[in-house]
């Protein structure tokens, strides 16, 4: 009987503790002002990324006297209109999908293919070299275009899409955030941040409604 | 002649399909970190580093700024950012100078969120083998995602 009671107490206690931790993680970090607004057409021109994502600019100011530290568990979550939450893809995934398909990645197959194709046809029909040249030129043009476009994308992402690992006091950060195109959200949450790695908080950035018309332009 | 052609074709196939690890180690005084990055395309590479005599593992991504295909500037070093998340919760932000031709070599420095300083440089495979506790570097992928959530 005693053992049964002990078990019940243990289960209830563990449930309470776990729910408290969850609450602690959802506690909004005081002294940090954040907002998110849609990026304008001038600020973000990358058409390839716009096929999948809608660009936003996140502004965070740390008004505390201590720096706010991000954590390996820090995630970006979009709070949707029905209060459900959608976790953002990681930077690596977004970065990969933001780039134009790079034909250059097929050079490893293309060059041996040209050599084999050119060699065989050259030996049998004496026309290997022209065919090989045609294949090479045909691959070069889309490759060059893709690479040129990717240079622009990489420069843009390098310059703007960089989440800091710590938010220094009295400093404002502007970060580019790419949300999935059909995600209709009302706020962005940055989870698991704090002054040390012991207690975790959340930063909430509401979507600025007045810029909604600009957002539609970017669709 | 046929043998030479076969050899050439096989070597071309092997070279075209293999990934190329570039090994790195920390040069800052204190704890020793070692690992590697593996280029995935012209501008980004996956990275994993290990702390010597510890279970600490960090992985993430390194990406170059403004690569060009110019042959004349191929050996220039360009800016690159390395973002790592670790299994102990720390995250690292490092700035690198990498040779843009094929990420061949470079050096970098940065901090974690607690302001601990790290410096890294590329090393040879032989040097890596001397210091490494592991046989093979494991990179993040879709089955084993990076410790860095964003």
Molecular structure report:
The complex is a heterodimer of chains A (219) and B (150). Chain A is α+β, with helices and mostly antiparallel strands and 219 residues long. Chain A folds into 2 domains: 27-99 and 160-217, Immunoglobulin-like (Sandwich); 103-151. Chain A has helices at 2-26, 47-50, 91-98, 107-125, 128-160, 212-217; strands at residues 32-38, 53-62, 68-69, 76-80, 85-87, 166-167, 171-180, 185-193, 201-206. In chain A, the strands form 3 sheets. A 4-stranded antiparallel β-sheet of chain A has the order 5-4-8-9. A 3-stranded antiparallel β-sheet of chain A has the order 1-2-7. A two-stranded antiparallel ribbon of chain A has the order 3-6. In chain A, helix 4 packs antiparallel against helix 5. The longest helix of chain A is centred in the middle third of the chain and has 33 residues, at 128-160. Chain B has one domain (20-131). Chain B contains 2 helices and 8 strands. Chain B has helices spanning 2-17, 125-131, and strands at residues 21-26, 33-39, 44-51, 57-64, 77-86, 91-99, 106-112, 117-123. The model of chain B is unreliable at 13-18 (pLDDT under 50).
Number of helical runs of chain B? 2
User: Spatial order of the strands in the main sheet of chain B?
Assistant: 1-2-3-4-5-6-7-8
**End-to-end distance of chain B, in Å?**
54 Å
Tally of distinct domains of chain B: 1
CATH architecture of the largest domain in chain A, please? Sandwich
Work out the radius of gyration of chain A: 26 Å
Report how far the terminal alpha carbons of chain A are from each other: 64 Å
Largest sheet of chain A: 4 strands, antiparallel
% residues in beta strands of chain A: 15-25%
What fold name goes in the CATH topology slot of the largest domain in chain A?
Answer: Immunoglobulin-like
| Biggest protein-protein contact in the assembly | A-B, 40 and 45 residues
Contiguous uncertain segments of 5+ residues of chain B? 13-18
The helix/strand order of chain A is HEHEEEEHHHEEEEH
């Amino acid at each position: 009987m005693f053992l049964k009671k002990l078990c019940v107490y243990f289960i209830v206690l563990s449930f309470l503790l776990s729910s408290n931790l969850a609450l602690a993680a959802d506690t909004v970090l005081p002294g940090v002002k954040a907002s998110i607004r849609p990026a304008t057409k001038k600020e973000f021109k990358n058409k390839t990324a716009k096929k999948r994502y809608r660009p936003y600019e996140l502004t965070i100011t740390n008004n505390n006297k201590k720096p706010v530290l991000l954590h390996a568990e820090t995630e970006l979550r979009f709070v949707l209109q029905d209060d459900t939450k959608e976790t953002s893809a990681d930077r690596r995934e977004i970065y990969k999908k933001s780039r134009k398909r790079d034909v250059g990645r097929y050079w490893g197959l293309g060059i041996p293919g040209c050599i084999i194709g050119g060699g065989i046809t050259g030996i049998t029909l004496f026309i290997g070299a022209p065919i090989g040249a045609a294949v090479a030129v045909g691959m070069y043009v889309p490759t060059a275009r893709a690479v040129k476009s990717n240079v622009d994308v990489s420069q843009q992402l390098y310059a703007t899409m960089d989440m800091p690992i710590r938010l220094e006091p009295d400093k404002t950060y502007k970060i580019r955030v790419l949300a999935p195109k059909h995600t209709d959200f009302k706020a962005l949450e940055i989870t698991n941040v704090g002054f040390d790695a012991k207690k975790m908080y959340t930063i909430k950035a509401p979507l600025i409604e007045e810029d909604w018309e600009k957002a539609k332009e970017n669709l | 002649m046929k043998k030479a052609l076969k050899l050439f074709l096989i070597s071309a196939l092997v070279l075209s399909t293999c990934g190329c690890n570039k090994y790195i180690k920390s040069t800052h005084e204190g704890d020793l970190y070692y690992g590697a990055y593996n280029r995935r395309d012209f501008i980004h590479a996956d990275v994993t580093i290990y702390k010597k005599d510890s279970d600490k593992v960090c992985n993430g991504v390194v990406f170059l700024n403004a690569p060009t295909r110019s042959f004349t500037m191929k050996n220039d070093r360009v800016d690159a950012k390395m973002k790592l998340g670790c299994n102990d919760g720390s995250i690292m932000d490092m700035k690198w100078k990498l040779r843009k031709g094929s990420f061949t070599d470079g050096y970098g420095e940065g901090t974690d969120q607690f302001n601990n300083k790290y410096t890294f440089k590329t090393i040879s495979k032989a040097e890596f083998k001397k210091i490494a506790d592991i046989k093979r570097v494991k990179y993040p992928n879709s089955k084993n995602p990076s410790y860095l959530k964003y």
